[in-house]
Amino acid sequence: xxxVARWAAALSTLxxxxxxLGLNPxxxxxxxxxxxxxxxxxxxxxxxIVGLALGATALYFLLQTFDPTALVSAAEERASAAVRDARxxxxxxxxxxxxxxxxxxxxxxxxxxxxxxxxAAPRTRPWSYVALGLAxxxxxxxxxxxxxxxxxxxxxxxxxxxxxxxxxxxxxxALAAPFAGLAGAWTLFPSAATxxxxxxxxxxxxxHRWLYAGVLAAVALTCFGFALVPVR
Length: 232
Hints:
There is one protein chain. The protein has ten helices and no strands. The chain has helices at 2-21, 25-37, 41-62, 69-84, 86-109, 126-138, 143-155, 161-188, 190-205, 209-228. The longest helix is centred in the last third of the chain and has 28 residues, at 161-188. The radius of gyration is 23 Å and the shape is flat. The termini are far apart.
């Protein structure tokens, strides 16, 4: 009974870690884009899942050899120091302001965007989604701690490699489940998929340059405001 409880706790922890590793805005943005286009969903989402699995597996075995805590802590300290530096906020604000001004000039000089040709099938290759998944699974402050904890949890289950790998497979399944589930559910509602695809196409044809300029200007003002805050 003790072993059952230990395995249940470990597997539930691994499921949570897998879901946490997949909580990346870039992954869900790419998934939303694929579903909205409603083209080659299986191959593109499948490629992203393969990239996630490859990156996670590489880190899983790599982090068996060292503890990344000190590395992550040092990187976080440097990032925090940069965030507290008013000069960084001022430079970021200036860059965003230049971006907003550039969009305004573009809009004024070319008020009407040229009509786009008839939409063609997306040319994005599945390997690009493999690369996206791979990058999202290895880059970031949270990826190393998550994969290190995954290794420690599986290591505590057994000295035999086979049960560890089986437990790690549960982690990979939890990592892939949200994206595979969304892709699978999408195919069950073709009418809804067609409606969303049409709305997506209309939005893609809309000129959003004033909106882009406003957002960039607002971000620039926010950065300048942070730069003027005396206590950081």
